Amino acid sequence: MRVLVVDDERPLAEALRRGLTDEGFVVDVAYDGIVGLATARYGDYDVVVLDIMLPGMHGYDVLKELRRHEVWTPVLMLTAKDGEFDQTDAFDLGADDYLTKPFSFPVLVARLRALVRRGAPQRPVVLRCGDLSLDPVGRTVRRGETMIDLTPREFSLLQFLIRRCGDAVTKADILANVWDTDYPGSDNLVEVYVGYVRRKIDAPFGTSSLETVRGVGYRLVPVIGAAGA
Where are the alpha helices (DSSP H) in the chain? Predict the structure, then answer.
């Protein structure tokens, strides 16, 4: 299993090289974004560990360029940042997993092995659930051919739900992924934003795709718009 580590913290990068080698990986290391992009594009890797804050080229830009050139190698973002939108930004651009420094090395190894097992299938950029589509890069939402205007927070909520099309998710899951794990407010905020999203993706089209799952939370289900599409 070949892994590319792109991280400008040389002691950490070298520690990862040694540790992953001991775990049976074949490891290459790049210390800046430009070299990391070129190496990831033209090398045959099973998985890439990519820092966000890199010299030469930002980690998000490296990831964006990889996906733009249809390099679907699984990417785990490794970063000291832990802001409200970092995980959303990484997944928007096509990341497969996300780990915040400091991290547990055994957890990193387990995540990498899981990504390798999953592989790198060709995947569409646009997310779909029935005739509802969301483009994470273009930041657009459509029901059929009709464009739907969402606020940034509504977009993040819908993106979280559409990635789990058909699955019930809890309010706690939504708060942790759309706001953040340390959000101090009430989970009633989720109900408010679910209502906002429903009024935009369902009400004008005569659909009921965003369901309440009693005792659990919410579920986005695939339906076809009956009106307005």
Answer: 10-22, 33-42, 59-68, 86-92, 105-118, 152-162, 171-178, 188-201
Are 2-118 and 127-220 equal in CATH topology? no
Instruction: Answer whether residue 92 shows pLDDT above 50.
Output: yes
Q: What is the pLDDT of residue 226?
A: 61
Distance from C-alpha of 62 to C-alpha of 53, rounded to nearest angstrom: 11
Cα gap 40→24, rounded to integer Å: 20
End-to-end CA distance of the chain: 47
For the stretch 133-147, pLDDT in tens is: 998 767 789 999 999
Q: What is the CATH number of domain 127-220?
A: 1.10.10.10
pLDDT at residue 182 greater than cutoff 60: no
Whole-prediction pTM: 0.55
**Among positive and negative, which fits the CA dihedral 60, 72, 107, 22?**
negative
What's the CATH code, domain 2-118?
Answer: 3.40.50.2300
The DSSP code for 94 is T
Query: How do the domains of the chain map onto residue ranges?
Result: 2-118, 127-220
d(CA 225, CA 229): 6
Place of tokens 């789990």: 164
